[in-house]
Structure formats: C-alpha cells, structure tokens
Sequence to fold (488 residues):
Amino acid sequence: MKTASSMITRVGLLSLTLAVTTASAECNPDYRGITLDVGARSRPFIANAIAMAAQGWEKQTCGKINLREFPVDQLYPIYFNALVTGEGKFDVITFGPFWTPDFAPYLADMPMAMRETPAWNDILPVYRERLMMWKGRYVSQTIDGDQHVLYYRLDLFNDPKEQKRFQEQYGYPLAPPATWRQYYQIAEFFNRPSASLWGTAEAYRRGGEQFWYFFTHAAAYTHHPDHPGAMFFDPDTMDAQINNPGWVKALEDYINGLNVAPPGALGFTSEDIHNIFAGGSVAMNFDWGDTGVNAADPKTSLIPGKVGTALLPGSKQVWNDQTRQWDSFPNISRAPFLAFGGWQAAVPANSNQIEAAWNFIAWLSSPEVSGEAVVTPQAGINPYRQSHFDNRERWLQLFTPEEARLYLDAQLESLKSPNVALDLRIPGHFAYTQALEVQLTRALNFEISPQDALNNVAKAWNALTDRFGRDAQRAAYRASMGLDREVN
Fold:
C-alpha cells in the first residue's frame, strides 16, 4: 500500500506548512496541471467551507479542486466502495471519525511535517490525540469541531415577566436548564402553539442524524464518571449496554420532546433544527455549533442578538453498569457529548496526488483559513483549535459580546471537561447505527415500547459484534474510549 511518507519528498513536506502562510510567490508550491477530486456532503455545510478554502488554495498553488458533493446518508457507501475497490475516485475524502476504523486500512499516513508545526499544537487535545489516529497511525486531519451544546433565547429567558411567571409555576428561577427534567419543564412553559412558539425541537427523522440526538440524552444517564467507556458497551465483555435503564430513560425523554415540538417534528433533520431556532419558533434546542452561528446571522435569522449558549443538561442520577443500579450524586453530573466528533479530511492511499492532497488539507485546516470558516454562517465549521477560542475579536463580526462569550465558553468548557463523552467509534459503525435507527423510528411512532425497542437494538448489536469478531471489536472499542493506548 502506498503511504504519504513513501510518496512525498522532504521539500514537498515542508511546502505543506509553508503554503498556508506564504502568499507572495506565484504557484508555491507549484501544482499547475493537478486537479484534486475532493469528496464532501452536499452544501451548505462542510462543502461550503471546502469551496471557500479551495479559492485561496487554487490561487496559491495554481492547482484545481473538483468538489464532489453527495447527500450525507450516501457518503459512507460511496467512500467505502471506492476505497475497497481501489477505483481512485477521490484524492481527499471528508467524513466523521466514527468511520475511521473502516477506512483506515485504505488511507495514506499524514506526513510528519504536518505534526511539526505550531498549527499542530493549536488543535485541541481531544481531537488531536483521540480522533485523528487509528492503530497508532495519524490518518486524518480534523477540519471541524463537533459537539452538542444547548441554545436558548436570551430575550425570553431574560424577560422579567417570564421569569416571574416561571418562578411562580415551578418554584425555581428561569435559567438555562441544568438537568433534563428542567429542560422539559422549561420547554413545557414556553410551549405556546397559539403564539407560534414551541418549547424545543430535535432531529427525529431516520437518516437525518437522528441517533446523535438520542445519544446526547443518553450521555447524561449512562456516562458514569467513575466508569469511563461503559456507555455503549461493557468494555470487558463487549456486551451491548444500550437496553439498560439509563438508555431507556434517555429514549423516554427523547420521545417526550415530541410533546413540545413544532408540527412535523418526526420529519426534522439536523439542518431543520438550525433553521427552526434561527426562525424564532422555539425557546431552546440543543445542536452543533452551527445553530449558534446561523441564529446570530442577521441576514438569515429572526433572532440576531438573542442567542444564548450553555452546557448540555445533566443528571443527579447515573446508571452504574457494574452494580446495575442508579447512583445518586450530590451535584449534577454533566457529560458533554462529542456528537459526531467533527468532520475530518484524509487522503486515500491510491490517490496519484498524495502530496498535493495533504497540502490542500493543511491549507483547509490552517488556523487562518479555518478561523474564517468558523465565523461564516452555512459553512458548517465549528471551533476545534485553541486559536479559534482565543481570537474573540473575530467572533464579534457575527455575535454581540455577550453572545460570543456564552457561545465560546460553553463549547470550550465542554471540550475540556474531564467527563466528556466520546461518540461511538468502532468498525461497522454504519451497521450498528442503522440497526439502532430502525428501532428508534418504531419507538417514536409508538409502534413499540422504549424498552422493547432497545432490547431489539441490543440483540442486533451483540449479533453484529459477534459477526465482526468480539475480541477485535473489544480491542477497538477500548482504544477508542481511551482505555487502552492503541488497538493491537
């Protein structure tokens, strides 16, 4: 298999880092005559950011970018088939880190020169040290920082009349919810269909990134601070945990959200969630960083200047998978969830343009280029570098000072939390989540109880684990959760 280290000269390696900071020399490095085929999800999100970066890279290097866009639910089979068959359809692919275990055998190693720069150390450790590596190899570059955080309407939450009414009705001050119980009480309070205002909105459509919203609920109840890595599977036996009482409680909550959501909620995708909040139709939601950026944009939002951000709700009770009972905590246990984990870019090993491909990825992910993308509505790029958080003046192009402070503080606190919950990341992720969504959809349509739905998922997951090889899956899962240093 070709690797980047065997294909790229030392001069070419150095150009990877020099290109993103040198704009004076024409065609530096010189990629005239080279066209890179870059795969991405359909616009706007991610593809817009790649197209923006491509303009600068083409001017700098004289190369060309052919951006190939596909619906997000088609990316996995398109990429996987191209990689396995060796068709050479792509020079760069962009994807979620949960597919890395399946893709890694067919990817080129990241050049060492990309790991010898200030830009490398600028990437937050949770991305750099956990999500860009597989089996001891750096095979991808984070180009987006993804996690779920809470958004709320500042004008509604800061209204003295609303605060007084809420205090009288529920007995505690109106503020961003600290627990999921408070989340649904606040959603109930603001749910006013006659005024075209609803409590909240989540993604419920199968294929619309549905399961990540469910996982976010589950993190609070199943990511035990004393037992890391036991959220999805027992890390010792690899038995599925998804039907334990913590997961059942999460599914009950997820279904309960339908009672305080706008009409048609079962058809909502994550993109719908962005637009619904920006349109002022809901009092709050939780979602990726795109909701905050898009809702703050006065060109498309009805609520600019009114966007609050906070940590995800937690719980005082967390299911203990070892004792098989609920553990109660004196303080609220928060488990910020890295839903999706951020888009990444990688180079297929069968590309004929490995040097140029990594050069483009270095440009795309550079502090300068990515720093503009994170504040660009509809780009789909969220903060993943320390410099993204430190350069707060940039955010004032979009946010008010209060909005910027709330947005950046909530995200950075989540990313640096000692109890941060990592997403599922093992071989066969696509098959596991497909099996899950079948049963989630049945439960959301009240065809089956939450417990029965998750029992079915657990049975399917255990069968998949046996099919892929329980020992191999156990090693992969433990490594992805940080329990072992790497997969052997």
Observations:
- The two ends are 19 Å apart (CA to CA).
- Residues 428 and 468 are 8 Å apart (CA to CA).
- The chain has a mean pLDDT of 92.
- The chain has two domains: 4-139+344-380, 165-340+423-488.
